[in-house]
Amino acid sequence: FIITRVAPNEIRAYFNACLHRGTKLRSSGTEGNASEFKCSFHGWSWNVDGTNKDVPCPWDFPHVDREKLNLPEARVELLGGFVWVNMDPDAPTLAEYLGPTVMGQFAEWKLENRYTVCHVTKPIPCNWKLNIEAFMEAYHVPDTHPQVCPANADWNSQYDTYDEHVNRFITPLGVMSPTYYGKITEQDVLDQCTVGDSSFVGDKPQVPEGAYARQIMADMFRGMFEQATKTDLSKVSDSEILDCYSYTVFPNAFIFPGISLPMVYRFRPNPKDHRESLYEVMFLRPLPTDGSIPDTAEVTHLDHEQGFGEAEGMDAGFGAILDQDTENLVLQQEGLEASAKHGLTLANYQEIRIRHFNKAYDKFMAMEPYR
Questions:
Q1: Closest-CA residue to 297 (of 285, 310, 279)
Q2: Is there a shared CATH topology between the 2-71 domain and the 96-365 domain?
Q3: How far apart are CA 165 and CA 28, in angstroms?
Q4: Strands, E, within 180-298: which ranges?
Q5: Could you please report the per-residue DSSP string of 9-78?
Q6: The domain 2-71: what is its CATH number?
């Protein structure tokens, strides 16, 4: 698509193909601004509102009505500061698709008041379904990310499903993994806490007798984030400050609206190789209360061999976590291709989001192809 702003509050998505002989009007993956969309092949051009601007040698096209030569559009809706594109003109609205519960929760998160401070893409040598399913549960944390277990509830995460297209987990931070019960102290929890964006974290205080690391972490992060980002978090709960909230919107978006892990993941298949997919990570922060709008981070495109920690603006500790996840995915892709077992064995609760995702996937795959 060509996605462009045509008015202050209007964005359109045009199918990226010239109506002459089908050449792309813009190369994939490019961005910028333009006053027209002109085909590099024969010079047919369109205004940014989609109306036709020019057909060279009009005498040779008496059968073409330029008044009807507008660029075809996909449906576009705006929610939470994001542009949502749908190619199906008969699909339900975004509000209907997400459902009233999720719409209400997204309204409370106010994601439209965030900006992007880090934006990374990396090709991963696995199918896109494996890529997205890897992040739907915290069951893998003790063995894949043991360094976070002292301050990550992992197996005690909460899982929720909403209607057909959205699911969620909440992983409490600032409390120890059940694999660490009886092995560490509250001070150990505080000393070893790991959050997604720890660039604001300075020296950690001591946990007083009878106190809990979680409360000290919440108070500490609230003050540090407020000072560093010039935002007011007085009405934000401790859970929203600390915990990992992860929403999956079918088919390929993850939204983490919390403060310590304020992210978006997007997963896209490689149309030329089903064994490869593109993993995209964006870190968000609240807009400053002084009314200023910081610059949006430029996208860093990593290659196969680079680690996430090499990306501009990526927290080193969290980059290491992402590298651990993607190393598993390489092994999973190769293992599934070598397996003699038919299908997977999923947990009833901790992997319910994967079950929910595949139920939606099966529903859409069973539909008649859109024409």
A1: 285
A2: no
A3: 28
A4: 244-249, 253-257, 262-270, 273-286
A5: TEEEEE-SS-TTT---SS-TT-----SEEE-TTT--EEETTS-EEE-SSGGG-TT--GGG-PPPEEEEEE
A6: 2.102.10.10
- Rounded CA-CA distance 41/18 in Å is 9
* Residue 133, Cβ density class (10 Å: 0-12 exposed, 13-18 middle, ≥19 buried): buried
Q: What ranges do the domains of the chain cover?
A: 2-71, 96-365
- Other residues' Cβ atoms within 10 Å of the Cβ of residue 17: 16
- pLDDT score of 344 more than 70: yes
- Strand, coil or helix: 146: helix
Domain 96-365 class? alpha beta
Q: What's the pTM value of the predicted model, to 2 decimals?
A: 0.87
Pairing of strands 273-286, 262-270: antiparallel
How far CA 49 is from CA of 88, 313, 343, in Å, comes to 20, 35, 48
Computed over every residue of the chain, the mean pLDDT equals 90
Amino acid at 12: R
Query: Average of pLDDT values for 128-157?
Result: 94
Give the whole-angstrom CA distance, residue 145 versus residue 330: 16
Residue 350: CB partners within 8 Å, gap ≥ 6?
137, 138, 139, 155, 157, 159
In this structure, what token pair is assigned to residue 331? 């092994």
**What is the SS3 assignment for 149?**
helix
Name the residue type at position 311.
A
Strand partners, 268: 278
Residue 203 has a pLDDT of 62
Q: Is the dihedral of CA 234, 236, 239, 240 positive or negative?
A: negative
d(CA 224, CA 216): 12
* Percent of the chain with pLDDT strictly greater than 70: 96
Taking Cα atoms as reference points, which of 161, 370, 182, 200 lies closest to residue 283?
200
